[in-house]
Amino acid sequence: MAVMKGPVASPVSGSASAPAAVSSLSCDWTSSASLVAQIQAEKLIVPDVVAQCANICQVAFNSTSAPGALAGEGIIISYFIQVALVCLFGALFPILIWLFNVFSWKVAIRRTPLLRKLQKSVYEINAFFSISLLVASIVRWRQAPSVMETVLISYVVWTQLLILTTMLFGQLSDNVMNKANLTWHWQLYYFAICIAQLATSCVVEVPHPGIYQDLAKQCHSQYGFTNLSALLPASEKGLMTLKWDIIGALGGLAIGIIGGVFAKMLLKFTPAWLRKHGEVTFLITILLLNITSAVANAVVTGNLRDTLRELSGDQLPDNGWSYGQITAILLWVPFFWGIAKETFS
Length: 345
Prior knowledge:
Elements: H1 20-23, H2 32-42, H3 46-52, H4 56-61, H5 73-102, H6 106-110, H7 112-141, H8 147-178, H9 184-203, H10 209-223, H11 237-261, H12 263-268, H13 272-311, H14 323-330, H15 333-344
Helix pairs in contact: 3-10, 5-7, 5-8, 5-13, 5-14, 7-8, 7-9, 7-15, 8-9, 8-13, 9-11
């Protein structure tokens, strides 16, 4: 394992003695769950517990077994492909087609049917890939994975929710900006998956995140252990998800009502160019924000996966490239095969 960066026998803490409740610890926990349960039940002071038990960091965060399939090479590569193609064909595509038409770029306009064909392929493949990731996330979470793997699963679910809403909003924006036909069966399908991803994101969470935050900080400061505090959630992620979803929905409803009531008054103070292009400007802004958020989530997920591999001693799920990992990559082959056929035909 390459996670302890320095000696573990002598903590940096200046405390020479521990409270009575801590001095009797056996430090023989078999899992992070039993460790956190004892800290919570006996109301132990985390810095003192960490100072007394040199093995606590490995118990809390290291894993003796390989992480689940979601951390595998094939799924991670497929995940990055998904993020890239969704940003391009889900969010950026409507903007590019609109610019082609605005500036009458004839060469690009002639290529629009081909681009729409590729866009349809991305929508279809992405829908099934998101389902497979959702099922894999739920199955792995029910197997009680390590703390950091739980964080990885939660980010994967969050990113899938963001990707699906981007695809939904991208198609609606394409309809408004470029008069593209809406495929309602795909809209309903994506909406249903969004609801499932939202429900999953409210459930998949790190238990007692405050205790794990304190453990991560103390392990880093006292033993030079890998700093994990920035990667751990500061509160119950599921409850925060539900809370902010409700706040966002109520806020959006309030803004819509106020805008409708005072629409005429607001138009008097709105510049002419904004009245003409305000809707398109709003759509482009939201689409660009979605791209930024998706890329940021992908970067964090990649960092989490690297940290998880480090904590598990560079072990790979399924001994590397298993059937599932290869299948995850092959899902995107029809898209790239379509590009190759159109390029050489």
